[in-house]
Structure formats: structure tokens, C-alpha cells
Amino acid sequence: MFNRLIKANGRHRRLEGWPFIFTALTALAILTGTIIEFAPLFLVDDSMTAPEGATPWTPLEVAGRDLYIREGCNNCHSQMVRPFRHELERYGNFSTAAETAFESPHLWGSKRTGPDLARLGGKYPHLWHVRHMEDPRSTSPGSIMPDYPWMLTARMDYEYLPSVMSALRTVGLPYSDAEVENAPALARAQAEQIAAEIVEQGGPEGLANKEITALVAFLQRLGVQHSEPLTAAPDQP
Amino acid sequence: MAELTTTAQAGALARPTLEVFRYDDRIVRHFTLATILWGFVGMLVGVIIALQLPFPEANLGPYLSFGRLRPLHTNAVIFAFAGNAIFAAIYYSTQRLCKARMFSDWMSRFHFWGWQGIIVAAAITLPLGLTTSKEYAELEWPIDIAITVVWVVFAVNFFGTLYKRREQHMYVALWFYIATIVTVAVLHLGNSMAVPASWFNSYPIYRGVQDALVQWWYGHNAVAFFLTTPFLGLMYYFLPKAAERPVFSYRLSIIHFWSLVFIYIWAGPHHLNYTAVPEWAATLGMVFSVMLWMPSWGGMINGLFTLRGAWHKLRDSVVLKMFVVGITFYGMSTFEGPMLSVKTVNALSHYTDWNIAHVHSGALGWNGFMTFGMIYWLVPRLWKRELWSQKMANAHFWIGTIGILLYVLAMYTSGITQGLMWRAFDDTGRLLYPDFMETVIQIKPMYWVRLIGGTMYLGGVVLLMVNVWQTIRRAPKDLPDPAVAVPAASSTSAKDIPVA
Questions:
Q1: What is the per-residue pLDDT for B487?
Q2: How many whole angstroms separate alpha carbon B310 and alpha carbon B377?
């Protein structure tokens, strides 16, 4: 039976004369796996529900996240702690589906040229991040990270935020009308606060309207809403 | 030049009525030159970012920092270098296999210039930091739309050529081209769905786990249907040509084509082992990845065994040498891929340079060497002039082979070293290397070795450029499209055969 299909002048030979049927069968072959793999995740989307009490990024954090994407930080830093003891020791609790439910796009990464950042929030003071971005080797001798000194001088334009937050709302983030409309003002207010804290820590003045402040806001946010203690026993590698 | 199927020509001698038409070789020349140019650019950017890793001072300002150049490197090598190479292969071989000129010259030109425009747009926007962040799909939505338009024109042109073909039977290379065109369209549309916030910024309609799964369904199958199936088609056409031997097994080609196409699409979630995707999805991805080993080796076996009784030809043919190394790298990386997808191995290898070694044995070893073999075979035929220097081509072969070996060995060492250090505990049960920096400093020497290997490989491409340039300089000014005569009476128009 199978031999009749593939022998030198078998049925497959006839198929080779029918390009459009051949194409349809090829499409069927690739769509089968696609549909079977995706259907459960898109139909039963409990993994897409954010944990109770979790809130999406503030406008300033959205701006910081855009900078994180612009600079391609995800090329070298993952944000996905795996459930291994050594990763828990090094980074903190393993990442869950629910806590990334707001992430459009996801920033899990595929390479750790630098360490994972999923639990970075609160690990260092703001000023550490400012110095680290200005010159990574000043805070982390031996680091191979590029420096980003221009982030301390480049002005941050918050006026673009409403269109971004509106797009994020369209893809499912629960922002209110007020948050979208007042995004620039909200971002500015949070930036003023962080800039003041940087000065308190002995850092430079006048960073409130600079890119670095938005980035710091985003980095300090990573993982802080999900730092509850372990409830499940991790796998061993 | 003898075609794969010579029966039609043999019949032509006996028949009085001949139909004469011309192949469009100009478009193949265009795509060939674009392949070489973008190959150089993409690999040069690769060498620059390879330098930036052990020597961060080489990050020169915002536009040339690692995070922005790395996507430029991957996009240039995959879509510009390998992309133009597969278009050259498809436009050359499809016309000959179908005994027909391409469906529309206008569409061929549109495809060529449209694709180059997309590459230039990528080369401008990525250093500017305009990126979606999704790996191998970093280009923003207006460019995504342009890609869709160009791909549709390419598809119409290709299927139009199939429709008006004079050879009823579709050779195996064409099956792989069909799978490429259909699947890349599905992947690109599926993965690029996004809501624009401005002309230069958009957010995927998927979030979190869904976005990750869609991304790696796309990412893995970009490897499958942009870097594997079209190159297998290329292999099936150009290898028997260069070896002057028929393909080893027709049956094997049927079995490995359908199993490869069916199984590959499932394998994506192996990129997400131990992450927050559901356990069943990652396991399914792993199981199908392991199954994929056999169809992949079906292709390797069919390629290498095609050389049975012709191995002595390798001595004199740089084309065959390139193909053999390319197919061997295909075999090695398609063994390594399933192995890396196995969870216990993946626990060590994921996030490390082992993956970098793996993708480069695929891209430089398989795609690169297959492309170089094809170019060395095509250039004398397209420009009607012997290759300027066989010696230089041989030097390219050796410097490239040693370069890629140095590259992957350095990255294996670096990846396994770092993976082991991350997970090492001391006797008291604490991390042996709690400071991440220790694991970075340990692998820096390997980054220098990788730079040397990569630079050698790029040096090979420079030799290719010089050789091709010198050949073209000596080529005749007038390069008319080759005319072909086929018997009109025996020609099989598509109308004679049942179509869907």
C-alpha cells in the first residue's frame, strides 16, 4: 500500500504533476501542528490572566520599557527564571505565566550574556542603575556591557505615551481612560519622584526629564509584584 | 548544459516543430550579486559585534551598540544573505525544471528591488533602535507590510511559472520551494500581528505566554522554512548538477520531504523548555524535535549518497567540496538541534553560547557553504566566463572551513563552561560562583577565539568577492538570455493536467 505510493511510477508521481493540490497538502501539513499546538492556549487562556492585584506598568515604566526594547537589552538579558535550585538561589523565585500576562511583547529573552533581570526590582538603589548605565565597569568591574552615557543627557519626551498606552489597551492591558489621557503628566510626576530619590542617594540633579529615569523606573519594577515566597517545589536540573 | 531531464531534448531532435523561449538569467545575476554583497555586510556586522563582546569599548555610540547591531547582523545574514541566495537558486532552477521563463519579468524585478529595499530599510531602522524586540522579526510594522507585499508577488510569480510549465513532473527541488513560500507566508503573518502606536512603534496582539509561543513557532520555523527547506531544494538541484549524478533515492526524497514539513512546525516550543509555557507544550516541542532528527538526516543522506561513485570529483571541484562541507554541517547541526531540545541537555545549554555555536554551524556551515558552492557553480554559467581563480576559491574553502570550526569550538567551550559554572554548588550547598561576573570573565578568552574564527570566515567571503569581481570584469559585455528549444507537440501545458 505504502509502496504503491512511493514507487518509481506510483501515486506520488501523479501528485507531482498537480502543483496546486501539492501546495494544498503542504499547507495542510504545516497547519496541523500549528493548530493543535496553539488551540488549547488560545481557547483556555487561564495562563493569560494576571495575578490578583497585579497592575500593568505605569506610564513612566511603559516609557522605560520602550527604551529597554529600543536598546535591545533583551538580546543579552533574559527575564525568565527557570525552576532550578541554582536559578532560585541566584535570581529569586521562578517566573510564572500569570506574571507575564501583561507583556506585549514578551521579553523573556533567549540568551544570558548578562544575568537574568526578572527579579531585578529593588535589588539595587536607583543611583546604582544610573552609574551602571553610564559606565557598567564603574559598578561591575569586568562587565562587558556597552555603556549608555547618552541616557543621562537625552531628554525624554512623554507626549508620545497616550498613543502607546492606547495601543497597549487595545491588546488587553487594563488602562483607564484617565491613565491614557494623563499619561504624560503621570509619567512626569513619577519621574520627579525618582529623580529626587537619585539626588538623595548622592546622584546628579536634573535627571527628571532624562531617559535614564524612565529606564530606572522600569528596571526597579521588574518582579516586585511577584516576590511572594515559593509555594511549589522546584524541579532539579 | 545538460538538464536533469533530457528526454524532452532527445525527443526534440526527432520532431520538426520546435518552440523556442528564453530563460531569464539576468534576474539570477542580480540575486547572486546581492547575495555576495549582503553576505559581506551581514558578516562584517557579525565580526564587529563579536569584537564588542570581549572589548566593550568597541560600542561606539547609540547607533552602533551591541543591542542594536545584533538584530541587524541576524536579519542581514538570514534575510539578506541567505534570502537572496535562495531567490537566486529558485529563479535559476525553477525556470529550468519547469522548462519555462518566469511567469512575469515585471514581478521578478519587483521582487528583487522590493526585497533590497526592505533590507535597506532594516539597515536604517535597526541601528535607530526601531525594533519590535521579537527575535528574527524585529522589523516594525510598515516594513512587515512591505515584506508581505513582496512575498505575495514572489508567490504569484513562482506559482504562475508552475502553471505555465512545459515539464509536467515537478522535481523534488520544487516541492521544497513550495513548502518555503507557503509556510513563510503563514509564519510571517501569524507572528507579526500587532497594533501600531505610531509609524515606528507597535505592540503584538499576543501577550506573555501566547506571545512567547507564537514567537518561537515563528522563530524555529524561520530556521525550518527559510534556512532549511529552500536550501534542501537548492541542494537537490545544484548538487546533482555539479556531481553529474542523479539524486540517490527518489523514495527517500518523498518520505523525508513530507515528514520534515509535517514535523518541523511542532518543534518551536523547545526554545521555551522550563519557562512559563505549559509543560505539555514544551514536552510536545521536545518530542517532535527528536523525531525531526530522522527526516533531517534523510536529506543529508540523500545529498551525500548522491556523490556515490563521484567522490573523486571533490579533488578538482571546489563546488562539490563546498557542498560536502555544507551538507555535513547540516547533518551535524540537525543532530545537535534535537539533542539540545531534550530537557536535561537544554537545562544546561539554554541561555548559553552553546546555542550561538549551534546556529552558526547551521548558518555559516550549512547555509553559507551551500550558498558559496552554488555561487561558484553559477557565476561561470551566468557570466559565460571561467572562474577567475580556482586557487583563490580553494583558499576560500579552507579559510572558511577552519574559521567556522574555530568559531563553533570556541562557542561550545564557552557555552558548556558557563552553563556548568551557573549551576555549580560548593560543599555547603551554596552557589560556587554567586557573582555572575565570574562566569563572564571565565569565557572572555573564548570570545577572542570566536572573533578570530569569524574574521577568517569573513576573509573567505572577501576572496569570493574578489574572485567573482575579476570573473565578471572579464565576462563578455553582451549576455543574452539563453534560448531553449523544446518540441512544441510534446509540450505539456498545465491545461492538460488536472489541477485543483
A1: 82
A2: 17
> In terms of Cα–Cα distance, which of A93, A228, A16, A156 is closest to B176?
A16
* DSSP assignment of chain A: -HHHHHSTTSHHHHHTT-HHHHHHHHHHHHHHHHHHHHHHHHHS-GGGSPPTT--PPPHHHHHHHHHHHHTTGGGT------S-HHHHHHH-SPP-TGGGTT-SS----SB-SS---TT-TTSS-HHHHHHHHH-HHHHSTT--PPP-GGGGTSBP-GGGHHHHHHHHHHTT----HHHHHTHHHHHHHHHHHHHHHHHHTT--S--TTBHHHHHHHHHHHTTGGG-PPP-SPPPP-
Residues near B326 by beta carbon (within 8 Å), at least 6 away in sequence: B235, B365, B366, B367, B368, B369, B370, B373
Using 70 as the pLDDT threshold, list the residues of chain A that sit under it. 1, 45, 226-237
Low-confidence stretches of chain B (pLDDT < 50) are: 1-8, 11-12, 490-500
Domain extents in chain A? 2-44, 59-226
Which residue is listed with cell 510594522?
B141
Class of domain B22-424+435-474: mainly alpha
What integer pLDDT is reported at residue A45 of this predicted model? 65
Contact across the interface for A26 and B497, Cβ inside 8 Å: no
User: What does chain A come to in residues?
Assistant: 237
Enter the pTM of the model: 0.93
Residues 6+ apart with CB under 8 A from B199: B142
- The residue ranges of every structural domain in chain B are 22-424+435-474
Interface contact B436-A73, CB threshold 8 A: no
Mind listing the pLDDT tens digit for each residue in A154-200? 999 999 999 999 999 999 999 999 999 999 999 999 999 999 999 99
Nearest chain B CA: its distance from A195 CA (Å): 23
User: Is B70 in the A-facing interface, judged by CB distances under 8 Å?
Assistant: yes
Query: Can you list the alpha helix ranges (DSSP code H) found in B306-389?
Result: 318-341, 343-349, 353-360, 369-382
Indicate whether this complex's ipTM tops 0.90. Answer: yes
Query: What is the rounded distance in angstroms from the CA atom of residue B348 to the CA atom of residue B417?
Result: 10
| Domain boundaries A59-226, corresponding CATH code | 1.10.760.10
Contacts of B385 (CB under 8 A, 6+ apart): B471, B472, B474, B475, B476
What pLDDT is recorded for position B16? 59
Residues of chain A neighbouring B436 (CB-CB closer than 8 A): 90, 114-115
Q: State how far residue A189 is from chain B, nearest Cα, in angstroms.
A: 23
Strand partners, B201: B198
What letter represents residue B234's amino acid?
L
Task: State whether residue B190 is helix, strand or coil.
Answer: helix
